[in-house]
Write a structure and sequence with these properties.
Blueprint: H1 9-15, H2 18-35, H3 37-53, H4 60-79, H5 91-110, H6 112-121
Helix pairs in contact: 2-4, 3-5, 4-5, 5-6
Length: 122
């Protein structure tokens, strides 16, 4: 405990809290969304493919990863994002997004559309 709170005073000094922090966090998340749009789109494809391709018992893992990633995004918005334009607060969920994006792109390339694209290029 730090003087009766769960976090140190430097957290309160940097974050501030309230609706202004949420607005800053939403802007930060929006900027990340624009910068990482291809990654996000492929991650959605991969997450849907992982969900649909798994048995009912196997759907727990992708669902849990999606849930944790969503909660992490909500946390970053809640605390107001970051002052640095490097999106370092999204480094942790970017790993899950990259994994889903890899699954999505490999599934697409292995499917009929991917084979047709590959046949045109070779």
């Amino acid at each position: 405990m730090y003087y009766g709170t769960l976090v140190p005073n430097t957290f309160h000094a940097k974050v501030g809290g309230g609706l202004s922090a949420v607005a800053r966090g939403a802007a930060y998340a929006g900027e990340f969304g624009v910068a990482a749009l291809p990654l996000l789109l492929l991650a959605v494809v991969g997450a849907v493919a992982a969900w649909r391709g798994a048995s009912s018992a196997g759907r727990l893992a992708p669902a849990l990863v999606m849930l944790v990633t969503g909660v992490f995004f909500a946390y970053v918005v809640y605390v107001g994002g970051d002052y640095k334009p490097t999106f370092r607060f999204f480094a942790v969920p970017a790993v899950a997004l990259a994994a889903f994006a890899g699954a999505g792109s490999s599934g697409w390339l292995a499917g009929p559309a991917g084979r047709a694209w590959h046949a045109r290029r070779c």
